[in-house]
Amino acid sequence: GTNGSNSTFGAITATGGGAGSDSAAGYAGGSGGGGSYQNIGGAASPAGQGYGGGTGTNNGTDYSGGGGGGAGAVGGNATVAVAGNGGNGLNWQSLGTYYAGGGGGSTYRSVATRGLGGLGGGGNGAIFNSSGPKTSGSNATANTGGGGGGAYNGGSGIVIMRYPTTFTQVA
Q1: Cα–Cα distance measured from residue 71 to residue 74, given in angstroms and rounded to the nearest whole number
Q2: What is the rounded CA–CA span in Å between residue 118 and residue 67?
């Protein structure tokens, strides 16, 4: 995968999310990408924009990726036959609306459990198996800044502006 693009609004820059990997550590980004089997997740860089990705696992027959970091929580670590869930996004203004959730990790084994996307548009991971059924993952939800599930695309971002609805004239 490749890291997400930076988003800029005036002098403010939100760093694009880090990509996951199919054979190495996750990449650093605004939120870190999940690590592949037996590899660590990517760091959140620069600090303060998100959280790191989870670590993958490999027991010889099961290869599961860690979940991507979200704006509000770290990505989950994979365990045997269970890929890591994406970290939850940021609960904007504590209103229950989340943005920038991490993508869930994918796994390679038909009896394994894929990682689910974090709150805030994160996509679900997939189950890949050359001899058995496959379960597709999903792209992130558009306009949330969420990360895609393993092997899928992240979502476009959003700018939210807040301004007063009443004004007081000052003499």
Answers
A1: 8
A2: 9
- The tally of CA atoms less than 13 A away on the side-chain side of residue 150 is 37
Q: Can you read off the two tokens belonging to residue 85? A: 């869930």
- Tell me which residue has tokens 């760091």: 43
Query: To the nearest 10°, the Cα dihedral for 18, 85, 158, 51?
Result: -50
Q: What pLDDT does 101 receive?
A: 96
Q: How many CB atoms lie within 10 A of CB 97?
A: 14
- Residue 116, C-beta contacts closer than 8 angstroms, at least 6 positions apart: 85, 86, 104, 122, 124, 125
- 59 pLDDT above the threshold of 90: no
121: pLDDT strictly greater than 90 = yes
The two most distant CA atoms of the chain are separated, in Å, by 77
The CA distances from residue 117 to 76, 109, 125, in Å, are 10, 19, 7
| pLDDT for the residue 99 | 94
* pTM > 0.85: yes or no: yes
Half-sphere exposure of 41 (CA within 13 A, CB side): 39
Facing residues of 113 across strands?
Answer: 82
Structure token pair of residue 8 = 């800029």
